Amino acid sequence: MRCYKLVLIILMSSILLACAASDTLSMLLRKKHHDTSKHALLSHYMWTSKPTILWRMDIGDRSSIYKNISLWSQGKMIFAIGNEGEVSSYEQLTGHLLWQVELNIPIISGVGGGYDGLILVGSMDGEVLALDETNGELLWRNSLSGEILTPLKGSHDIVVAQSSNGQLTGLSANNGAILWSYRCSVPSLSLRGTSAAVMVDNKVIASYANGKLIALSIIDGEIIWDKEISIPDGETVLERIVDIDVTPVIRDGRVYVVSSNGNVIVTDLDNGNRLWMREYPSHVGLDAVVHDAVYISDTNDHIWALDDDAGDLIWQYSDLLGRKITAPIVIEDNILVGDLEGHVHVMSRENSGPVFRLQVSNNAIINRPIIIGDVVYVISFNGTLTALRM
Prior knowledge:
The chain folds into 3 domains: about 1-30; about 35-65 and about 320-390, Lipocalin; about 65-190 and about 195-245, 7 Propeller (Methylamine Dehydrogenase, Chain H), CATH 2.130.10.10. Helices cover about 5% and strands about 40% of the residues. The chain has 1 helix and 32 strands. The strands form 8 sheets. Strands 1-32-31-30 form a 4-stranded antiparallel sheet, with no helix packed on it. A 4-stranded antiparallel sheet has the order 2-3-4-5, with no helix packed on it. Strands 6-7-8-9 form a 4-stranded antiparallel sheet, with no helix packed on it. A hairpin with a 4-residue loop joins strand 7 (about 120) and strand 8. The radius of gyration is 21 Å and the shape is globular.
């Protein structure tokens, strides 16, 4: 009996240590966004333009370093969610609160949607919930295995959820019933997080912590292609991590992904074959493709503009080093990022010259802002949601 107890204690200790190691690893590789001890000082410029603040709203504090709760736009509404599942709908131009519901579930991802008036929410407990976009009424819910760390999306009568345990699930958009499931093995040690699945045409594109990029049929979950695009290389465990936690971007028949081990990879959407690769490590992502260029924020807070044909360098911007910037977004002729002190930085897409800077919060901006027309929506770590007209 003592022997069995000893084995049980050792087993439980191992599990706890593995979880702690995963959390510590995530913090090491992602760099805590509250560490402001080493970052570039901001230069002063004569700004060529300045945005107008349309409205500002407090939607609740993000109390955990892992919470990466993004916004969602649908119709003429902006949707946001708090840590405990407080889903809110705002009118895009005025910030007027249309409705708010309390789901009382632990949330670590943002709101999703995209199909027939559904607003979709995934929880840390693996629950999937569908709400009516007009009033927040709960339409259905279902339970899956594994945390849901990224927003859910819907298309072709199907809702797709990607779980932290490597499972990709297709559910009926009408009642939440499971229609198909795909499981990909994930390494025992990886960054905490997953990318969000992307739907285009009849395909679901998903990336994994083992360096794989896959395309499934959105109708039945059958594999269309399966490619290992990021291969472990190095002597240490950390060096061999190949997580692709940044959501793929799809433009004009190409899939753009970036891995934690330092590669921007572009593949063909039809067959997954690699078109080109360049070494630019990133945990926050890229924006592709605008006027034949790809824009990326790397782990050292450089911003790079790459030629879309072969990945050749167009320009590099290095004035924001150490400022924990977001992935870039393109708005007309400019590039926009947020930083750890709540600043929005805008520079020229043509030559990276500074256009303007505005502090919208005293807290870090950790999610890439979203753009609707000429309005940018920015959310900070303390839950301040700001709408800027450019």
